[in-house]
């Protein structure tokens, strides 16, 4: 599945943003814990290799996800190929990864307020030790669709929200957390 979204930092108060998003259907708030895994000997699943492996705990559900990022000729992130399955046991999945020689790269703990329209999922994320982010993802992107046009439409949608945000981030929260921890160039 193609994941086409735009992630921006929110430069305003959380309550103001929630009020601005209140016109959309609210799907609730979820606590999410993401653990990104890497292989210390081969560097497999490092962000510098444009792919990742993630174990997610989202309230009472757990998921294993593989993502491969795709970039344009200028090096800007365009979309990700994402493959995700639900798993029954978060802790056992971590133990399996450890037995395979994989290690935790980074942990992202956040609270997600999710809103939807007919075309978009809008998520206000309050990430522990990192800040407030807005992620807008287009539903059901087909292979033949024009990705730059979709991203342009998402940018227009964000602009119309009237929320002060940063320019599009061409990297995700895990990379931001690594950078914050001064590890982005020196992966463990």
Helix content: 10-25%
Calculate Rg over CA atoms.
17 Å
- The end-to-end span amounts to 30 Å
Beta-strand share of residues: 35-45%
Number of strands: 9
Q: What do you see in this structure?
A:
With 188 residues, this protein is an alpha+beta fold. The chain has a single domain (2-180), classed as Beta Barrel (Hypothetical Protein Pfu-838710-001). 21% of the residues lie in helices and 43% in strands. It has helices at residues 14-21, 90-99, 147-160, 173-180; strands at 2-3, 5-9, 25-38, 51-58, 61-71, 77-87, 103-116, 120-127, 131-138. The protein has a 9-stranded antiparallel beta sheet with strand order 1-6-5-4-3-7-8-9-2. A hairpin with a 5-residue loop joins strand 5 (61-71) and strand 6. The model has no long low-confidence stretch (mean pLDDT 89).
